[in-house]
């Protein structure tokens, strides 16, 4: 995967947290995930990617980070339901920002929500999985980017 694609996601992540919370996120150094690596936190959302690229975008965050974000978005209730909705919204925003940069052929699915620390993430077959560590307000989360250029384009 081209480094510029990871940069697109990093810029979008920083923009999201700066716009939403007035505090920028700090991006850690992206690294290549291993097969069946345990990376899931309390809540996760997966967005499938088709079109000019194929693969998925996977955002995972701990409950505490989501509880810190919800009041900043006007939510008083700190429920697991809202945590799941928020992690899906964040994954969708990150993917949508990438779509703006990569064009209409970068087609994104609706988020598939997961809760709990799932055993592992299984990236798209034949595609490397890059993990982007995200720090915000002393909370950690991760964005996993698994994309390859489609053969059909």
Strand content: 25-35%
For the record, the CATH architecture stands as 3-Layer(aba) Sandwich
Number of domains: 1
- What Rg, in angstroms, do the CA atoms define? 15 Å
Structure keywords:
alpha+beta; 32% helix; 3 helices; Chemotaxis protein chec; single chain; 8-stranded antiparallel sheet; globular
Helices and strands in order, then pairings?
Layout (H helix, E strand, L loop, with lengths): L2 H19 L4 E2 L3 E2 L10 E9 L1 E9 L1 H7 L10 H23 L3 E3 L3 E4 L13 E8 L2 E11 L4
Antiparallel strand pairs: 1-7, 2-7, 3-4, 3-5, 3-6, 4-8, 7-8
Description:
The model has no long low-confidence stretch (mean pLDDT 90). The chain starts with a helix and ends with a strand. It contains three helices and eight strands, in the order αββββααββββ. The chain has helices spanning 3-21, 63-69, 80-102; strands spanning 26-27, 31-32, 43-51, 53-61, 106-108, 112-115, 129-136, 139-149. Helices cover 32% and strands 31% of the residues. The chain has a single domain (3-147), classed as Chemotaxis protein chec (3-Layer(aba) Sandwich), CATH 3.40.1550.10. A hairpin with a 2-residue loop joins strand 7 (129-136) and strand 8. Strands 1, 2, 3, 4, 5, 6, 7 and 8 form an eight-stranded antiparallel sheet that branches. Helix 1 packs across helix 3. It is of the alpha+beta class and 153 residues long.
